[in-house]
Amino acid sequence: MAPIEKPYLKTGVFEIWRSRIGWLMLLMISATFTGMIISSFEDALAVQVTLTAFIPMLMDSGGNSGSQASVTIIRALSTGEVEFGDILRVMWKELRVSVLCGFSLAAATFVKILLVDNLIMGKASYRSGRTRCLHNSLLYNNYSKAHRLYAAYVRREDRL
Q1: What is the pLDDT of residues 19-64, one digit of tens each?
Q2: Phi and psi of 4, rounded to 5°?
Q3: pLDDT band at 74; cut points 50, 70, 90
Q4: In the predicted model, what is the mean pLDDT of residues 136-153?
Q5: pLDDT digits (tens, 9 = 90+) for 146-157
Q6: How far apart are the first and last CA of the chain?
Q7: Alpha carbon distance 69, 67 (integer Å)
Q8: Can you give the chain as a three-state secondary structure string?
Q9: What is the pTM for the complete model shown?
């Protein structure tokens, strides 16, 4: 998992694969843990389906902030600005930066929910009552009720 010293076009495919596969495997394993964490909140997500819309935003923000922090620290290590003995100072600094970023992102998300989700998209565009009922029936595996609702909806549309 060390960087390759040769120019890109002069580096063999197997060597590039070997330099990347370790990190990709590590990321795949961490994604498995992420899936386990999300599935542990399955009951809460079933009750409030709207929460699932925030999962990609949270995952992307977490991944991007982690990438920024790691790139900054790796660069500082490679230029000699930071040494292994500075680990506690680096961790303390990154903790404070992460708290500030967390509060900033939380405030931006709150404004996004108020403006974009409620005002621009509107609550009516989210789901009509009949569609919400159909969705919840499917969600809770009540297929007979969902089928009856869908059939009634189709009959209504045919009359229009």
Answers
A1: 888 877 887 888 788 778 888 888 887 887 777 777 888 778 888 8
A2: -85, 130
A3: confident
A4: 52
A5: 455 555 655 555
A6: 64
A7: 6
A8: CCCCCCCHHHCCHHHHHHHHHHHHHHHHHHHHHHHHHHHHCHHHHHHCHHHHHHHHHHHHHHHHHHHHHHHHHHHHHHHCCCCHHHHHHHHHHHHHHHHHHHHHHHHHHHHHHHHHHHHHCHHHHHCCHHHHHHHHHHHCCCHHHHHHHHHHHHHHHHHC
A9: 0.53
| Tokens of residue 88, six digits | 């506690």
Sole residue written with tokens 């795949």: 28
Q: Residue 134 and residue 156: Cα distance in Å, rounded?
A: 15
Spacing of C-alpha 139 from chain mean position: 22
The CA distance from 149 to 132, in Å, is: 11
For residue 114, the one-letter residue type is L
* Pair of tokens at residue 106: 């939380």
